[in-house]
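From the pipeline queue, job 12 of 40. The input is one protein chain; the requested action is below.

Action: predict structure.
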Amino acid sequence: MGGDMQPQGHVQVLIDLIDFGMSVQEAGDAPRVQHLGSQTPTGLPIAPGGGTVSVESGIPDATVEALKKKGHQVTRTAGSFGGYQAILIDPKYGNLHGGSDPRKDGCAVGY
């Protein structure tokens, strides 16, 4: 992941791992959202109305509607956001668990 999606994607993967108990692969496979229109490190101005939440196709329609009811501007995208490869170290046994995001080429390798 790079640019403005990098911190957003990292947090979403961590939430999937920690809060939802997903494996490192499941966390990479899970659909993501991206907020567009925030102030950026490059100095772009904030978008009118606070910007837009763009969602991948795997986000349920009910979730999109709930966000809209809360006042968010939501759009669906045909593409995807971010991409990562990760190695999770099991703290109890020291085993390595790899995950490779289907959004990008690559693989997780550890030894």
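Job complete. Helices lie at 5-18, 24-29, 61-69.
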